[in-house]
Amino acid sequence: MTMMQGVLDHLDQGISVFSADLRLVLWNRRFADLHEFPDGFLTHDLAFEDIIRFNAQRGEYGGHYDVEDMVRHRVDSAREFRPHRFERTRPNGTILEIIGNPLPGGGFVTTYSDVTVNRQIAENLRGSNDRLDQMVERRTRALQDSEERHRAYGEFLEATVQHMPQGVCLFDNALNLVVANKIFFDLTQIPDSFNVKGINFYEFMLYNAQRGEYGPGDPEELARQRQEIAARMEPHAFDRTRPDGTVIEVRGNPIPGRGFISTFTDITERAKAEEALREAATMARAMLEAPGLLVLLIRMDGTIVDLNEEAAVGLGSHKDAMIGTNIFNAMPTKVAERRFALAQQAILEARAIYFEDERDGRWFETTMTPYPMDQDGIPRVMVIAHDVTHRHHAEQRLREATAMAQAANRTKTDFLAAMSHELRTPLNAILGFSEIISREMFGPVGERYRTYGQDINAAGQHLLAMINDILDISRIEIGAFTLCIEPVDPHELAYSCLRLVGSRAEAGNVDLSEDMPESLPHLMIDSRRTKQILINLLGNAVKFTPPGGKVTLRGETRDSGGIAFHVIDTGIGMSEADMAVALSPFGQVDTGLDRRFEGAGLGLPLAKSLAELHGGSLEITSIPGKGTTVSVYFPASCVAG
After folding, report:
1. What is the mean pLDDT of residues 595-622?
2. Is 70 exceeded by the pLDDT of residue 461?
3. If we measure between CA atoms, which residue out of 512, 516, 418, 532 comes closest to residue 470?
């Protein structure tokens, strides 16, 4: 029921379900928001007539009427339990589309949609519903509803693909084209004549191989190799540089039981920016590794005791001629006063003084260091001046190149955030309706369609989890992520996480246990995000632990006053290089098209980022073949006072 409520709360439609005696048994957050019900008004077993009376008293039904007459009329109408569909304009101008259907055994379920802006779309939908009413006479209601949802999903999928800012293509299990958008053909420069549903993946590969996209070799063999790889239906991601120099980022993911979908993004400008940044950094390092060095030893009064040839040349003279002269006399008065003050500061504070200044268009980084007194007891200072004019120029170029790279990265992050949000909204609807089909909430649909509903829901849940992780990573990167701090019992937190991962561990024959001392204090943290951290870590541990292995969640109080959670497994382990890859966004230790473990590579990076948002950290210790321990540390500031 909790999962069902979670699904309903993410729908863009309001949902209410009333029992046969007209009592409220189920609703979602959108239902309350659309009607602007006050907090706490909606409760389980609330009478339908109380809701009607509340609406009537605040003028929801327009015009002048007697409140009790209105309540009686609407309650009598509801008791007929007939399907109904109408639009109601609220006092604030919002137009709600209300669709109600009776439930087997009594009661009814009603959906509420805000169609204020989309009235034209609503008109089209009404036409569709009229056609559906004609089909009701020939088919059962459950089958008709199922077919309509599948049709709408297909239309929505194709519309989404056609309007995505990336190139997108979708192939079915037989590697036949289902849909591809115009940007896909523009980026890959494949003729529009290939945009025919049912054309095989091999034909695309053969065309590319024949025009040299995959380098030298027999085109038919190159195409066949790529078809065999695609037939494995495994996730893949790579950058491909086309013969014309264009760099395309290709990402593919399987749709369980349906085929696979691939996206194509032109990252040529980003690649150029990254290359420019690398070139600028290389140039800066070369300039900094070969500087001129000016070294002088002076007394406090400015008398030069010794200097090197570079310094003498810098002062416009020879070494022998400069010894014994006063360096301050070669400087403007204000500059000499400042240098003298800095030399005094170095002597009085007994430490090196660093500063930079500019002279005649050249920049110098200077260090004044206290030096042992001479035989007359006069303090001395070692002056080391480094010509960093080249560094100033290089730093300027680096700042410009970095700004370009950051702009490109920000664009990528904003794109991921926008696309994740756009994809998550329809996915929530897909999940909700597929759950209704698989549970046969509106009546029997047949074993075949119920199985289809379960398949759709499972695939949608997997894709939604990936999209949510991408959206969280994107929000963190752009600084738009906010924690909701609240008191949390670490024992309840651990129990909840273990319970959610328990079925997965049981299915994999992995022993799942906890070691949480009673003395652990309460925490002031974001409960949902911390649970997300621990579930990610426990899920990874179970996934990478062979049958018969063990996974333990352990808590401890640290000497610093903070709290640590350790997820310990006896799984396959990782090398140091593997750990670095695992902590990078989209990093996959088990890479390639023959990967054994599914996932987008976001779990560990997201857990690390969420821990750092709390002021904590995440660390990994692992031995290949022995197991892994992932530790999440929360500072003392997260412990409830």
Report:
1. 75
2. no
3. 418
